[in-house]
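Quick entry, no commentary yet.
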Amino acid sequence: MTIDTPTQTVLYTLEQAIKTYRRLCQQNIDRVVDKLTVDQALILIVLDKHPALSQQQIAELVFKDKASLTRIIELLVQKGLLTRGMHSADRRKFELHLTPQGQHTLAQLTDTILLNQRTALAGLSEEELVQFHSTLQKIIANCSTPAPCA
């Protein structure tokens, strides 16, 4: 296959798929919850499943730098979806907890999250999904290992 431009690579197509999926997610979130971004919803989901995670761990899970995560958390606190308090053992850290409103918001999004996943993966067999996941893991491993100098 001859590649004339970067937009003809499989990695460009992968990025296009991710961005298209995020747009779909945002459109569907907007139908259910007012003024909540995909990133904000993702952080609520992570905290609901793993309430003891530090902000650093959350940032790594959602691919955000520390400053971006801090801004998102502040917005979630302002919206009344999260509380932020001092960590009981380490005053340099914060403890984050979903509020009842945050839990209600997540409950509203459950069907939307499943719809987004079903829509994105429609027409793919279980075998194709397993192979796709395996291929993505190989790409991640390749990119995680420094390339030798030419």
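second:
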Amino acid sequence: MISLPNSLLQEVDGIVSKQKVNRSYLIREAMCMYISEMKKRQIREKLQAGYIEMSKINLLLANEAVQAENEAVETIESMVSGA
């Protein structure tokens, strides 16, 4: 058995009356929608955490690439200048 405040129960009764369904159907649908939204939220949170982690890795790789590029420029400049 589920307990609902009277105000919510009145809203539910209004909806089931308009849609010509029963309370059980409406509650089942609402629960399915809630579970679906929770799963979507969990996926979004996991994706966000993954993107944050990848951004840290990408920043490290970019810094390494800049250092390597700077070393290459210095090497070329010294070769060109004959040093």
